[in-house]
Specification:
Elements (H helix, E strand, L loop, with lengths): L2 H7 L5 H13 L5 E2 L3 H8 L3 H13 L3 E4 L12 E4 L2
Helix pairs in contact: 2-4, 3-4
C-alpha cells in the first residue's frame, strides 16, 4: 500500500491529522524529515496553531510521526524536527 492510501484509509486519524501528515510528507526531505514551525504549518494550511498542535500530538501518539526537539546554539528551542514513520 502507498503512503497516501495508508493515511487516507486510517480511520484513527482525524481530518486535521491527515492534513498535517500529508503536509509533512509533502515538505519532507529524502529521509522523511521536516522542521517547519507550527505557525508556518498553520498559515500554509489555513488552520489555527492549536489545531496543528492537536494534529501533531495525535500523529505522535498514533506512531505516524516522531517528534524531536531542536535547539539553537544559545540553548533556546527552535522548530521541532518531525520524522514520518512508515
Amino acid at each position: 500500500m502507498s503512503f497516501f492510501n495508508d493515511v487516507y484509509g486510517d480511520r484513527n486519524l482525524s481530518a486535521r491529522a491527515k492534513m498535517v501528515c500529508l503536509y509533512l510528507h509533502d515538505r519532507a526531505n529524502g529521509d522523511g524529515e521536516s522542521w517547519y514551525a507550527i505557525g508556518t504549518i498553520a498559515t500554509d494550511l489555513g488552520l489555527s496553531r492549536s489545531t496543528v498542535k492537536r494534529a501533531l500530538n495525535d500523529l505522535v501518539w498514533l506512531g505516524k510521526v516522531e517528534k524531536q526537539p531542536r535547539y539553537r546554539e544559545n540553548g533556546g528551542q527552535t522548530s521541532n524536527l518531525y520524522r514520518l514513520r512508515k
